[in-house]
């Protein structure tokens, strides 16, 4: 339930406030007496709170952790300016009369003006008493001048005291009296906010703030003594300035124009501001950024042989991370064995003592181990852990995996689970969290185990599936009618780690081998990725073998490629979800990946420059088409010059020209693409494009024949100096090659200007990508913050934490996308 | 010159109906909600004025939905 804050007010701490908050008056700069006990009246006074274990607070009586700490106060010998209020003090000096203490705004103006507004341009004569006002100046860090005459903190304070309450109201000076902006009493923070650390040598090391307070108290003492004995003014002024310096740096030790207060070692001390500010400050570092135990982080690398819901954990990490296990009647013998094998790091006795297990004491521990103890055992195979990759943009960015302890120092994951994490292996690191309670482990395995998250909660299709080489492999295995000798098939299946009883036949087809992975009750038909969208689909008789037909778990026709088993697309995977349980789908994805790699490793897979060769005649054909396009665009430019160009609706003549040129060039590239498609030789590059594992026809065309138009912001390249894009062209040249058209392919190499266009385009892509991720990331963050406490109640109503109804039926159709088929529910066919 | 427009006939304006006291109680019970937990609609809303609903009335709004075909929402009429 949400409770509402009714009111909150901020105000200036008054001396009375400071006194009433305080329990101790600080009088001495000594911390400890000769015996090492804290001195009463010092800044470590025991009444300020407890930091030493076992002791009780002299003020509230509670022990360490209970006692919140208590404030003290120090009477300053002379007032000191509060460094964080200098701006407010400056403004107030400017807007109040130096003589009568009224606000420098006439009653006629009556309408309330703010401090800020009035201080910007204060009148130089008091509208009330007519006194001329001196010019107020503020010199950083904390000195005020009136017509070059320095104002002491005391004088400033006296002035502010004269300002009456109704006057303050006039300028909306709220939250207390202006004279409170100048310190006469200094609050001494509780020792709990500045605990001292006892070093191993028994020496005490004090917190930075304590050091600072000692300085303040010491200087304050000597200032008071000097005032009391009537010391000369300059001595008093020097001491006062020193006190001002110390009090200022106590609040903020990064003031401009002030040397930083330093520790004996030369390290700058941490002021109050430094504690809160910045990335490692209290706010961002501690309140918004919490840290966890039982976690590990290292580089990830692929292991196509482990299951999608496993994670390979390096031995060193498995030995460091532990899981707490209570000793029971049932497991005591097992645990004793673990202690003997040094698979246990700590044992905990019922009295709370933790004992580290070493090879020396393990015998003794095994003897004493009894039912009321608990042990911290190391991670071993089968433990369930959480695995995460940042940025955690959606729920499947954290999933539960099973541990598999492995040699070497990287986390190993199956390539199939890369898509949900958006991971690759170019140095990505991931985090692992060992779950500590039985409840959390059950929850993890039921809700966020990888195998239960194969279908995306966003679009209802598979998030997990084969990728890259795995798709190439399964495509090559299943395309056409590849026939394998029994021995070869056996080797391949064994290498994939599959346990299959082969039918008693001398030869097996690739399709048959794949069919072993399918459950018997799977029947479906769909178009593969390699489908070329013929005008009339021949279905089973497709000459590209692109019509996938599966009947009762047997692949009859068609090729298995990214449309069947790929991440984000795989139709087989999403269909399997309706015929078998998740464990079986997991096995299918595992086996499919291994089988694909096993076949691909036998076949070999490689590409080379010569794969992009086109016969000379075809290259001429391409060149002719490019020339033709350039000629066409030149004709358009001519027409534009003669003003006979066809003007498109809603566009200017220039825009019409641009659009038409772009169309002409795009059409040319399209035609070239078709030429390339028809004449390029069969190679593994084509396999990659057809199977959908990587690359497309566009990429192949760009490499082999022609890159085409490079665009900036969707336009032809226009940027440059004085009417041209580069000095290589005539001014006002509108031709294709002067505006980013690249006539060659990467294999032929680009001309210098063409390379420049390509780099321009590449840079735009880079900028665009980083800008877009930033923008959309922040947009998503705001959405998540706004929606994070919504929940779907059991009656399918969406409510927020205050019980307000957001949606009467979730999604209006109460369909859970992760249980749906691409967002639809079509269980009946 | 257009003198008046019947806004309820516009395609983008969904069907609004005033619920009876009994229906209102049923809705609140069905969704286990208090009046303040229902989505709100101000009395000055043109459709509310047109159908003559008063503060405290619950309105049933039947909208077209891309996922479900038709979706029913309820709003309680409130003063500004």
Q: Determine the structural class of chain A based on helices, strands and strand pairing.
A: alpha+beta
State the distance separating the first and last CA atoms of chain B. 32 Å
How many domains make up the coordinates of chain B? Answer: 1
Q: How many β strands of chain B by DSSP?
A: 4
Identify the CATH homologous superfamily of chain B: RPB5-like RNA polymerase subunit
Strand content of chain A: 15-25%
Question: Which strand order spans the largest sheet of chain B, edge to edge or round the barrel?
Answer: 1-3-4-2
Largest sheet of chain A: 6 strands, mixed
CATH topology group of chain B: Eukaryotic RPB6 RNA polymerase subunit
Query: How does CATH name the architecture of chain B?
Result: Alpha-Beta Complex
Number of helices of chain A: 25
Please describe the biggest sheet of chain B, giving its number of strands, its sense, and whether it closes into a barrel: 4 strands, mixed
Q: Overall 3D geometry of chain A?
A: extended
Question: What features would you highlight for this structure?
Answer:
heterodimer, A: 829 residues, alpha+beta, DNA Excision Repair, Uvrb, Chain A, Barwin-like endoglucanases, Enzyme I, Chain A, domain 2, 6-stranded mixed β-sheet, 4-stranded antiparallel β-sheet, 30 strands, 35% helix, B: 80 residues, 4-stranded mixed β-sheet, 2 helices, globular
Brief account:
By secondary structure, chain A is of the alpha+beta class. Chain A is extended.
Overview of the structural elements:
The complex is a heterodimer of chains A (829) and B (80). By secondary structure, chain A is α+β, with helices and mostly antiparallel strands. Chain A has five domains: 248 residues, Irregular (DNA Excision Repair, Uvrb, Chain A); 159 residues, Barwin-like endoglucanases (Beta Barrel), CATH 2.40.40; 135 residues, RNA polymerase Rpb1, domain 3 (Enzyme I, Chain A, domain 2); 158 residues, Orthogonal Bundle (Topoisomerase I, Chain A, domain 4); 41 residues, no CATH class. Chain A is 35% helix and 15% strand. In chain A, strand 7 and strand 8 form a beta hairpin. Chain B is of the alpha+beta class and 80 residues long. Chain B has a single domain, classed as Eukaryotic RPB6 RNA polymerase subunit. Chain B has two helices and four strands; from the N terminus they run E-H-E-H-E-E. A four-stranded mixed β-sheet of chain B has the order 1-3-4-2. In chain B, strand 3 and strand 4 form a beta hairpin. Chain B is globular and about 50 Å long. The model of chain B has no long low-confidence stretch (mean pLDDT 91). Chains A and B meet through loops of A and strand 4 of B.
């Amino acid at each position: 339930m949400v409770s509402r804050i009714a009111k909150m007010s901020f105000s200036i701490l008054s001396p009375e406030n400071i006194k009433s908050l305080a329990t101790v008056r600080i009088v001495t700069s000594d911390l400890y007496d000769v015996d090492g006990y804290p001195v009463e009246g010092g800044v470590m006074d025991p009444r300020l709170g407890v930091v030493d274990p076992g002791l009780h607070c002299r003020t509230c009586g509670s022990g360490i952790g209970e006692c919140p700490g208590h404030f003290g106060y120090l009477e300053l010998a002379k007032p000191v300016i509060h460094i964080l209020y200098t701006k407010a003090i400056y403004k107030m000096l400017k807007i109040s009369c130096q003589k009568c203490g009224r606000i420098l705004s006439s009653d006629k103006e009556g309408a309330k003006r703010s401090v800020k507004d009035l201080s910007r341009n204060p009148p130089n004569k008091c509208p009330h008493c007519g006194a001329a006002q001196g010019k107020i100046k503020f010199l950083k860090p904390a000195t005020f001048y009136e017509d070059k005459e320095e104002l002491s903190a005391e004088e400033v304070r006296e002035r502010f005291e004269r300002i009456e309450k109704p006057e303050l109201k006039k300028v909306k000076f709220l939250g207390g009296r202006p004279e409170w902006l100048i310190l006469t009493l200094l609050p001494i923070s509780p020792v709990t906010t500045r605990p001292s650390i006892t070093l191993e040598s028994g020496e005490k090391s004090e917190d930075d703030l304590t050091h600072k307070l000692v300085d303040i108290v010491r200087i304050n003492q000597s200032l008071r003594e000097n005032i009391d004995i009537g010391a000369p003014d300059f001595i008093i002024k020097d001491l006062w300035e020193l006190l001002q310096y110390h009090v200022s740096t106590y609040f903020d030790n990064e003031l401009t124009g002030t040397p930083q207060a330093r520790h004996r070692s030369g390290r700058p001390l941490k002021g109050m501001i430094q504690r809160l500010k910045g990335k490692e400050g209290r706010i961002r570092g501690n309140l918004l950024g919490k840290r966890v135990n039982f976690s590990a982080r290292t580089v990830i690398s692929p292991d196509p042989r482990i299951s999608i819901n496993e994670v390979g954990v390096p031995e060193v990490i498995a030995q460091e991370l532990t899981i707490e296990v209570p000793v029971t009647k049932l497991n005591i013998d097992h645990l004793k064995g673990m202690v003997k094998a040094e698979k246990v790091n700590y044992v905990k006795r019922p009295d709370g003592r933790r004992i580290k297990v070493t090879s020396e004491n393990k015998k003794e521990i095994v003897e004493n181990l009894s039912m009321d103890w608990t042990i911290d055992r190391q991670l071993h195979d089968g433990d369930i852990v959480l695995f995460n990759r940042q940025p955690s943009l959606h729920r499947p960015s954290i999933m539960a995996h099973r541990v598999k302890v492995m040699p070497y120092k990287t986390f190993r994951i199956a390539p199939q689970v890369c898509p949900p994490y958006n991971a690759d292996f170019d140095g990505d690191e991931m985090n692992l969290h060992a779950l500590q309670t039985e409840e959390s482990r059950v929850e993890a395995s039921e809700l966020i185990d990888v195998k239960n998250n194969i279908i995306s909660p966003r679009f209802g299709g598979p998030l997990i599936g084969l990728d890259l080489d795995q798709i190439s492999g399964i495509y090559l295995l299943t395309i056409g009618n590849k026939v394998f000798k029994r021995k070869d098939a056996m080797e391949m299946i064994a290498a994939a780690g599959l346990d299959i009883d082969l039918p008693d036949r001398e030869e097996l087809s690739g399709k048959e081998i794949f069919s072993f992975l399918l459950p018997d009750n799977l029947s479906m038909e769909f178009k593969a990725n390699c489908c070329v969208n013929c005008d009339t689909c021949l279905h089973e008789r497709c000459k590209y073998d692109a019509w996938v037909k599966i009947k009762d778990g047997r692949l009859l026709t068609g090729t298995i490629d990214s449309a069947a088993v790929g991440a984000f697309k795989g139709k087989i995977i999403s269909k399997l979800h309706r015929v078998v349980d998740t464990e079986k789908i997991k096995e299918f994805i595992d086996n499919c990946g291994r089988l694909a790699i096993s076949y691909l490793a036998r076949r070999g897979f490689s590409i080379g420059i010569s794969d992009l060769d086109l016969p000379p005649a075809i290259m001429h054909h391409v060149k002719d088409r490019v020339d033709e396009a350039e000629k066409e665009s030149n004709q358009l430019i001519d027409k534009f010059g003669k003003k006979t160009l066809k003007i498109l609706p809603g566009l200017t003549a220039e825009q019409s020209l641009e659009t038409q040129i772009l169309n002409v060039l795009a059409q040319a590239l399209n035609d070239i693409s078709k030429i390339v498609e028809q004449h390029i030789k069969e190679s593994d590059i084509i396999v990659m494009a057809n199977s959908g594992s990587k690359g497309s026809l566009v990429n192949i065309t760009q490499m082999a024949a022609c890159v085409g138009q490079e665009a900036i912001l969707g336009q032809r390249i226009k940027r440059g100096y004085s009417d041209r894009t580069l000095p290589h062209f005539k001014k006002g040249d509108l031709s294709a090659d002067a505006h980013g058209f690249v006539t060659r392919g990467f294999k032929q190499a680009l001309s210098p200007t063409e390379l420049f266009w390509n780099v321009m385009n590449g840079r735009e892509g880079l900028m665009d990508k980083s800008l877009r991720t930033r923008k959309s990331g922040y947009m998503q963050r705001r959405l998540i913050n706004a929606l994070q406490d919504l929940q779907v109640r059991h009656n399918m109503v969406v409510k927020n934490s205050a019980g307000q109804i957001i949606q009467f039926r979730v999604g209006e159709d109460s369909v859970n996308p992760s249980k749906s088929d691409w967002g639809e529910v079509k269980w009946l066919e | 010159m257009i003198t008046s427009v019947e806004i309820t006939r516009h395609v983008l304006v969904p069907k609004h109906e005033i619920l009876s006291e009994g229906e209102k109680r049923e809705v609140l019970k069905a969704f286990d909600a208090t009046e303040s937990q229902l989505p709100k609609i101000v009395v000055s809303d043109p459709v509310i004025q047109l159908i003559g609903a008063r503060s405290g009335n619950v309105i049933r709004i039947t909208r077209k939905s891309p996922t479900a075909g038709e979706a029913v929402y309820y709003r309680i009429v409130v003063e500004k």
